[in-house]
Amino acid sequence: MKGLVALASGFIFALGLGLSGMTQPHIVRGFLDVFGAWDWRLLGVMGGAIGIHSITYRLILKRPSPILDTKFQLPTKKDIDLRLISGSILFGLGWGWAGICPGPGLVGMLSGNIVFIYFIGSMLLGMKVFQMIEHKFGSKT
Amino acid sequence: MIQVLGGVIIGLAATMMLLFNGRVTGISGIVGGLLNPKTSDKNWRVLFLVGLILGGAFLKLLHGEIFTVISSATPFDYVIAGFFVGCGTLMGNGCTSGHGVCGISRFSVRSMIATITFILSGIMSIIMFKLLRGGL
Questions:
Q1: How much is the average pLDDT of A67-83?
Q2: How far off is chain B from A36, nearest CA to CA, in Å?
Q3: Tens of pLDDT along B97-129?
Q4: Substitution target from B87, B104, B116 for chain A, most A beta carbons within 10 A
Q5: Is residue A141 pLDDT above 50, yes or no?
Q6: Which of A62, A73, A93, B53 sits 20 to 30 Å CA-CA off A113?
Q7: CA atoms within 13 A on the CB side of A38
Q8: B59 pLDDT exceeds 90?
C-alpha cells in the first residue's frame, strides 16, 4: 500500500512539474535571468506549492502518525553551516547552467529529449562521487 | 495562472506522501538514498521515482511540447551541470523540492536559507553563462 502511494505521489508530482513549466529549461532560466528578460511566472509555482503544503503540513501533523506508518520521518537538521551553503551554491550553479533540477530531469527521462538523460546520468555520478568522498572522510551526515 | 495550478498539484503530491507514508518528497534525497548501500527503505523510493518518470511519459503523450529545450547549452553543459547538481544537492541535503517546497512549507529556517542561496547562485550562473556565451 505504501508503495502504491509513493507511485501515485510521484506520478502526480510529475504532472505538477510539467504543468508549471519546470520541464522547460528556458522558463526556469528565464526565472533566474533577473537582470535580463526576467520571467517571473515560476513564482506562481512556489506560491501554489508552498501555499497548499504549508497548510496541509500543519493539519497532517495534528495526527499522531501517518495513515500507513507508525511515525513521521521528517528532516531534523537545523544547522546553517558551510556544508549547507556550499552545497546550495553548487546546486544553484548547475540548476541555472542547465535550467533543470532533479525532479524535472527525471520527469524528462522518457521524453525522447536526450539532454535530460545526459543531465540525470551525470547527476547520479555526482551524487555517487559525493557519497564516496563523504564516506572516505567520514564527515557527519 | 497555470503555474499556480501546477504548484498546487506539486503541493498535493507532497501532502499525499506525508499523510499516508509520513515522508518528505525531497527528490534529491530520495535518489541519494537509493544510491547509498546503507539505506534499508528502498521500495518506496524506487516506486516514487517510477511514478515520476511514468508521469513524464504520460505528459509526453498528451503534450510533448513541454519537453522542448530552447537553449544554446551543449550536451557537455548538461553533463557538467548535472554533476554540480548531484554533488550540491547531497552536500546541501536538498533541492527545489526538499528545501524549496517541503522545507519552506515547514517554515524551516535552514531550508529558507538554502533556497535563497541556490536561487542567488542560479542567478549568478545565468550571468556567467551569458557573459561566456553571449546569450542563453
A1: 96
A2: 9
A3: 999 999 999 999 999 999 999 999 999 999 999
A4: B87
A5: no
A6: A93
A7: 6
A8: yes
Whether B12 has its CB under 8 Å from any CB of chain A: the answer is: yes
Mean pLDDT, rounded, of chain B: 97
Query: Is B69 close to A131, i.e. CB distance below 8 A?
Result: no
Residue pair A94/B83 in contact (Cβ under 8 Å)? The answer is yes
- Of A126, A119, A122, the closest CA to residue A105 belongs to A119
**Mean pLDDT score across all residues of chain A:** 96
Q: Nine-digit cell at A111? A: 521524453
Dist. CA B112–CA A1, nearest whole Å: 33
Cβ contacts of residue B121 below 8 Å, gap of 6+?
A88, A89, A90, A91, A92, A93, A95, A96
Q: A51 — contact with chain B (CB < 8 Å)? A: yes
How far CA A15 is from CA of A80, A104, B13, B57, B94, in Å, comes to 32, 10, 10, 10, 21
Distance CA A31, CA B119 (A): 10
Residue A58 contacts residue B102 (beta carbons within 8 Å): no
A vs B: CB pairs below 8 A: 489
Q: What ipTM was assigned to the predicted interfaces of this complex?
A: 0.97
